[in-house]
Amino acid sequence: MDDHQRIKVALAGKPNSGKSSLFNQLTGLNQKTGNFPGITVEMKTGVCQLSRNQKAEIIDLPGVYTLYPRSVDEKIVAEIFSNNNSIFFPDRVIVLADATNLRNCLLLLTQLIDLGFPTVLALNMMDLAVKSGQSVDVGKLSKMLDVPVVIVNAREGHGIDELKKILVNPIKPSGKRVFNLNGELASIVDEIKNHFKLQSEYEAYQYIQQYPHLSFLSVEDKNFINDVCERNKFFHGKFQGAETIHRFGFIQDLLNEVILELPKPEWNLRTRQLDRILTHKIWGYIIFLGLLFVIFQAIFSWAQQPMDLIDYGFAELGSFLNQKLPNGPFFDLITQGILPGLAGIIIFIPQIAILFAFVSVLEESGYMARVVFIMDKIMRKFGLNGRSVVPLMSGWACAIPAIMATRTIDNWKDRLITIFVTPFMSCSARLPVYAILVALIIPSDQFLGILSLQGITMMGLYLLGFLAAIISAYIMKLIIQSKERSYLVMELPTYRMPKWSNVGYTIVDKTKAFVFEAGKIILAISVILWVLASYGPSEKMNNAESIVRNEVVSEGLSELELQNRIASYRLEQSYAGIIGKSIEPVIQPLGYDWKIGIALVTSFAAREVL
Amino acid sequence: MFIINLNKVDVARKVSDMQIGEKAIITGFLDEQLSTKLLEMGFIPGTTIQFNFSAPLGDPICVTVSGYDLSIRMDEASMILIGNG
Q1: Could you give the domains of chain B?
Q2: Are the beta carbons of A168 and A212 closer than 8 angstroms?
Q3: pLDDT for A543 beyond 60
Q4: Could you say which DSSP state residue A469 is in?
Q5: Is the CB of residue A390 less than 8 Å from the CB of residue A405?
Q6: Which residues are A57's β-sheet partners?
Q7: Is B80 an interface residue toward A (CB < 8 Å)?
Q8: Counting one residue from A and one from B, how many pairs have CB atoms under 8 Å apart?
């Protein structure tokens, strides 16, 4: 089957409805993360074998309650559904709903019905709904919405085949229209619809409501819409509240018909009891700090062995290749430029994998929302926000995934400050530098019998990074002026056991993103540094061996000492040496010489790429 | 449209005035911009809201609206008007 006949299926739903589980069930490991064109927001897509000769590209949308976006990553939902030239414009849509909270899941569904998309409603978490004592007339729900409904269990993988069967054949779009655009809106909607040759009235209405941030509209298009709006005394955002109330009115009428039995109020008692401890004013923080300590320990001690192994492996491989490959600039490039570059990427994989294992477990279980909940007030004092906690934590492993994680922060100012201060969190790339410095300066004495001074200093260095982050956040809070309001209306999901395969997928996904995104740059820099350190402008570089031999002929050095001399002479004459020497006057007052200068330049380069 | 009643600000109770465990009915909002966001999350005038507990420093708070738990800040809670259910 070739790509032309591959259908596109968008997977939509509110946060915490089990979307990632369903996405993993449908696509397995056939996933890739890319950038959404026009806006730098990550998009996950995957391939699903619907039937023997029909494949589908599944597009995983960010979890949203409505088409109207709140944060940067939510903007792509409106983009995708209103741009029929987009490469992501779907042929069919799955709306995944959490059966324990149908009301809030159906808002988006009614919008998609109005847009005229062939939609299927997948009811997830029916097991929980049944446990809560709720019962739903699924047949009636499907009939009243005029949309096919499937019951799935995204965690266990039940109902996936039924869902696929529905997706294989064309789905008739629902004949329902929930939000009627008559009266004063009719003329303006018609004008936009005819001008852009749109399929549905509601699509035209979305243009009117959202045109300022739809990236596919040209400036002329936006001006046109703006003119039409001004002529009709309409401003975008007007009627949004009224639309939502109208939709919820429809949903309430629907639910009155299809919900046969309401959930018992005490069904989530266990979550309440856990919350009493986990958000307690003392225990809450102790538990969170304890968890941080465990994560911290894990990143630095559990990762040590695999990292040593990788280091050893690459050293062995390097010396093996050195022996086997003939001499020459090309093979030197491989053994001294590319190989160390690869090692520099792969060595961080254990730490990144461990960090994201923890982050993913905490998110899956529902605890992360509580971290946001208990940290929000404190973080806000420093110009950050409860949602900054995850990016800052990720900063310990690597700043790149950390900055990617800030996209969930809806407030522009908070997001900017978080991005700015994240690099202050000491990332693992700095660990070797710290380790060497600590080992050199701090005696390996024991303090109070159990704690090693070196360990405490190490911890102190990390705390220092954290303090620097907090203080600069506070300063930025005073500098940046923003009228944008900050919100924290967030669901506190029911606690659940994490699904381990989802944790696995997250680890693979984040590690892949790191290796391919950051890896390219690290590799390139490594090769450039090698070139700088092994080539020099003058003849002296090429004749290093004979020059040194002549110089030291009287000193009677052994062969090994001679080789060292030659190497250091080479380094001195190389481009890197020249750069090091040229900054020597600047760093001399600090007691450094040109060799430390080289180290500074190269480590600066390494830091910047990370 | 929904009620935005600016004259009764001092007399009307808000979610931020609620006691732990208390239930009330949402009657309206004091801020239009914020109201669109709150509506989308299920804060619909006429529905029951229950104050469950607050975060250690008193802010944000956890409330139950139409059967599920949400966290909102006190700033937001003080924009939601309530009446007795």
Answers
A1: 13-83 (2.30.30.90)
A2: no
A3: yes
A4: H
A5: yes
A6: A8, A47
A7: no
A8: 108
Torsion of the alpha carbons at A491, A493, A499 and A505, rounded to the nearest 10 = 10
How many angstroms separate the Cα of A196 from the Cα of each of A189, A217, A231, A495, A564? Answer: 11, 10, 18, 46, 73
For residue A274, the one-letter residue type is L
The two tokens of residue A15 are 């946060």
Do A540 and A596 fall into the same domain? yes
Q: Would you place residue B1 in the very low, low, confident or very high pLDDT band (cuts 50, 70, 90)?
A: very low
What's the ipTM?
0.85
How many CB atoms within 10 Å of residue A256?
Answer: 8
- A369: which residues sit within 8 A by CB, 6+ positions away? A490, A491, A492, A493, B71
Instruction: Name the residue type at position A49.
Output: Q
Q: Is A240 on the interface with B (CB under 8 A)?
A: yes
- CB A145, CB A113: distance < 8 Å: yes
Q: Residues A123, A97: contact at Cβ < 8 Å?
A: yes
State how far the Cα of A155 lies from the Cα of A500, in Å rounded to an integer.
10
Q: Which residue of B has its CA nearest to A272?
A: B52
Q: How many domains, in total, are found in chain A?
A: 4
Q: Which helix (H) or strand (E) holds A124?
A: strand A119-124
A378/B36 Cβ within 8 A: no
DSSP assigned state of A422: G
Same domain, yes or no, for A339 and A428?
A: yes
Strand pairing of A490-491 and A42-51? unpaired
Task: Give the model's pLDDT for residue A416.
Answer: 84
CB-CB contact of A36 with A79 (8 Å): yes
Residues A390 and A459 in one domain: yes
> Do A490 and A348 share a structural domain?
yes
Give dist(CA A111, CA A193) in Å, integer. Answer: 17
What would the pLDDT profile of B28-70 be if each residue is shown by its tens digit?
999 888 888 889 888 999 999 999 999 988 889 999 998 788 9
Q: CB of A398 within 8 A of CB of A352?
A: yes
| DSSP type of residue A276 | H
**Token output for A123:** 């009811």
Separation between Cα atoms, residue A282 and residue A270, nearest integer Å = 20
Supply the pTM of this predicted model. Answer: 0.79
Place of tokens 């005073």: A478
Record: contact A490-B71, CB cut-off 8 A: yes
> Which residue has tokens 């018909």?
A257
Q: Which residues pair with A93 in a beta bridge?
A: A10, A119
CA–CA separation, A397 and A255 (whole Å):
46
Query: CB–CB of A377 and B37 under 8 A?
Result: no
Q: What percent of chain A is predicted at pLDDT more than 70?
A: 79
Q: Is there a single domain that holds both residue A434 and residue A569?
A: no
Q: What are phi and psi of B51, to 5 degrees?
A: -90, 120
Cβ pair A90, A114 in contact under 8 A: no
Say yes or no for a CB contact (<8 Å) between A244 and B39: yes
CB contact under 8 A, B71 and A489: yes
The Cα–Cα gap between A597 and A579 comes to 8
The parent domain of residue A111 ranges over: 3-168
Q: Residues of A with CB below 8 A from B41's CB?
A: 65, 104, 489, 491
Whole-angstrom Cα distance, residue A56 to residue A436?
Answer: 52
Tokens 């709903």 belong to residue? A97
Residues A346 and A479 in one domain: yes
User: From edge to edge, which strands make up the β-sheet containing B68-72?
Assistant: A490-491, B68-72, B61-65, B48-54, B23-29, B80-83, B13-14
